[in-house]
Every structure is written in C-alpha cells, then in structure tokens.
What we know:
The protein is α/β, with parallel strands linked by helices. It is built from 14 helices and 13 strands.
Amino acid sequence: MKIGIITFHSSFNYGSMLQTYATRTLLEEWGHEAEVINFRSKIQKRKYGKPISLCSRSQIRSSIYRILFLPESIIPLTRKWHLFNKFMHANLNMGSEYDDSDKLKADSPSYDKIILGSDQIWNTNAFDFNDVYFGTFSPDVPKISLAASMGPEPETQNKTYIRQLLSGVKHISVREERTAGFLRNISPENEIEVVIDPTFLIEKEHYDKIISPEPLIKGDYIFYYTPGEARPEFLDLAMQLGKLYGMPVIYEDIYRRSVSRKYEGLKRHTATGPSEFLNLLKNARFVCGASFHLIAFSVIYQKEFYGFNGDIDSRMNNILNKLGLTERIVSVASPQYEQTPINYEPVNERLATLRGETFNFLKRSIESDEK
C-alpha cells in the first residue's frame, strides 16, 4: 500500500524531523511504501531558511541584523542548517515539493491512505498552520491522524472551523489527553483515541542507523537541551546537576558564546543536526532539559534523565505519568533531584502497552475500508 505522510517534516528542529523519520520507518517495516508529502509553505521556508539569505525582504532584514549583532552565530548556524537539510533529504523519502496549498490541491498526489501527523499540525495558532494538515488537498483518499497535536491550549482555537476540518478525517488519534477532550466536546460523533508520539514506535536500533558510532564528546558528561534561546532558569538547574555529579554540562547552542563563559563547566556544541543530537544524548551519562522529545529519546535510550518544568509542561507530564516516571520531573520553583537510578523494567512494560495500543489503532485504520 502506498501511504502519504503530511507533517511538519521540514521544520528544522529535532523532534519534527525525527518523528517523521520514525513514522516512515515504521510503515516501511510493515511492508508499505511510505512517502513524505513535501509541502513546505513559503512562510515555513523563510522561517527555516539559510542564516544569510537575500530571497525575501524579511530574510534580508534578519541577515543584516545577524551580520551586525550576531556575527559569531553565522558559521555555526550555517553548519547546523546544512546538517538538517542533509538529514531531511537523506532519510525522509520526500515527494515533489509544493510551496503553496493550491498547487498541492491541484496536483493531489496519488496515495491509498494519507497519515496526518504527528507534531502540532492541528495548532491553528501556529505560524505555519495550513488546512492541508487536515488532508483537504485530497478529499477522496482515506485519512488517518497519528498523534496529531493542537499545541498547549486547544481550547483557544475556533471550534466551528476545527469541527469542519475534522469532517474529512475518519480515523482520529491525538497525542495529548487535553486535545482529545477538546475534540470530543466539539465533535462527539467522532471516536478520538490518544496514542503515543511516533518517536516511541521504533526501536533504538533504527535510530542507531543514523548516528555515527563514534561519540562526539569523549568522557562522562551531562547533556542539556531546551529549545530556543538560552533560558537561565533551566541552565541554572543543569549546572546544579553538573556540580552534584562532578561532570561538565554539554549544551546545544549557536547564538551566545557569552553564556558558556558565565558558567564554569558549561560547554557548547554548535554543529548539531538530528543525528548529532541523538549522538550527544545516547553517549551522555545524564540528560536534562525542558523538551518533550529530549525526554522521549532519554526513555528510548534508557538514560538517567531529569525533565525540567515537567510539572507545568502538559506534554512532558502526560508521558511521564503514563510511564511511571514522575519522580524525574524537576520543578523550577522547588527543584529536587531523585538520585535513585531508574528501574527501566516496569517502564519498558508500560511503554510496550502504549506501543501496542498505538499499533492496533494504526493497523486497524490502515486496513479499514472506511473513507
């Protein structure tokens, strides 16, 4: 069966690309032909464009700003951009590129089924949202949402609009309980299932195939990652762990060399794409940060980890509750560090159950004749 996947595959962040890789890998392991529908809107391409670019006014402005005020970030950012771009083209099996929804709708590539997700593709407040992520470009092909997310506040979105878009999706699964509750409320006739993120659906051996066998960092270290600019409240927590365990803290960053100068034992790693991210995580003694996918891969690789702000972050809290790992949550307001090593035997049993539930949903939806 030929299955198309539409998601935020070209967002240059680790979770987006790696969850796309996981879905494609799983489907091919099941014997299907899986192709990523290569929809890359103009606004998305500008957001994740090259660090120095003259392709649009906004890119020219940001390029001038970077040259004047952040010159030291240009080389690291360029290296990072190329690593993401290389990973995307080497590992995602993308079809023809579309930068406009009307072009995609006019062409309407031929598939037996279309999978929508994962990631925050149903967050209509996202800067790169488009109704194509509900499968509107191909109304006659059966559509399956796989762990689709509406972001942290689904209740803020237009109920009438969402209900209208849902009418074209017969097999619906979402990633968070909060999203499921919202959709059940506005569309009670639909069965809404909650499944786990696609990154959990393949074994670590599949990820090892895209990682260099040689560690990028030698010796023991703590790997810290939180998306976006340096957050001092999280960096402070990471440095507390560094002192507690007597290890340097490695963090992924391309902007501010001055940050690492403020903290003794904090070291930057700049040339980091999806493969390098996994390498740094896999070979760390400890992992910490405020990132859902950082925690997901810590579980997959059975690392000792700490999830910062997990008491506030509903996505992190949701999965750690299900896996029985809430003791690994570190609150910014009152940080405490559970030092007893994680017993992964019961965690793996819970994860196997969650995987099985997701596999059952996905197989049942793929095999269904319902459109």
